[in-house]
Amino acid sequence: MQHAIKTVGAALTALLISLFAFGTANAQVTDRVKVADPYLEMRTGPGRGFPVHHVAARHEFVIIELRATDWFKVRTVSDTGNDKIGWVHRRQLEATLTEAGVAKTFRDTALDDYLTRRVQIGAAAGRFRSEPMQKLWMSYRLSDALSLEGTLAQVQGVFSGTDMWHGNLIAEPWSDQRWSPFLGIGVGRFRNFPNQTLVGASDTDANLANATFGVRWYMTERFVLRADYTLYTAFVSDQRAQEFRAVTAGISFFFY
């Protein structure tokens, strides 16, 4: 199963890259600002890995044409028609001035991305009973307060290991706040496999139900911290069920 966890992790990484490309689709923006800093670096593409090909000087006007996450495509205004086009990070543009001479703010842009987030991918670590637990999850936001979430988890104990997966319905009443508590219920599958050194022990496969409570904190850009407490119930037979408690903390990346 450890190999399966690595495989799923690689798949989630590939999906993360794909969704990031989808999430960076250009948004149309039209605005005219004046450079207030000594210069404004314009790159050939939306990222720090692209080289700077032009520098706009102080008091020069640039027109913002497109946005891709925190990068903006801008065009200089030249009397000779020799306009230059490049990409500038949001932090540099926050130091520019509007045509009215006041500081330009892009805080609403970052906030809009957070409020309209749809897909999140995250990883966390914690304790399942008293044993170390790792999990990966992906969620899709159905509405402002509801989302679907899928989780793959692994616990490696001293005498046995545990693999599980479950799908949850998550309710987040204050999802527009920086601090946001949430509740969830879900079902899935549970498998416990004893160490081979234990004589006579056998694997346990069971249906799984869970209830979770946690809190999210929007950090910055597209990153969200999360901590949660989950009560798991494994139905090992028609007459017997086992309960387990887990506490985890992790980080997620969201897309719009």
Question: What this model shows, in words?
Answer:
The chain is elongated, with a radius of gyration of 24 Å. Mean pLDDT is 84; it is low at 19-25. β11 and β12 (179-194) form a beta hairpin. Helices cover 14% and strands 56% of the residues. With 256 residues, it is mainly beta. The two termini are 32 Å apart. It contains three helices and 15 strands. The protein has an eight-stranded antiparallel beta barrel with strand order 8-9-10-11-12-13-14-15. It has two domains: 27-105, SH3 Domains (SH3 type barrels, Roll), CATH 2.30.30.40; 115-255, Porin, CATH 2.40.160.20.
What percentage of amino acids are in beta strands? Answer: over 45%
Stretches with pLDDT under 50, minimum 5 residues: 19-25
The geometry reads as elongated
Order of helices and strands: HEEEEEEHEHEEEEEEEE
Number of helices: 3
- CATH topology-level fold name of the largest domain: Porin
Number of beta strands: 15
Helicity level: 10-25%
SSE blueprint:
Blueprint: H1 2-23, E1 27-34, E2 39-43, E3 52-57, E4 61-68, E5 71-76, E6 85-89, H2 90-93, E7 97-98, H3 107-115, E8 119-128, E9 131-141, E10 146-156, E11 160-171, E12 179-194, E13 204-220, E14 223-235, E15 242-255
Antiparallel strand pairs: 1-4, 1-7, 2-3, 4-5, 5-6, 8-9, 8-15, 9-10, 10-11, 11-12, 12-13, 13-14, 14-15
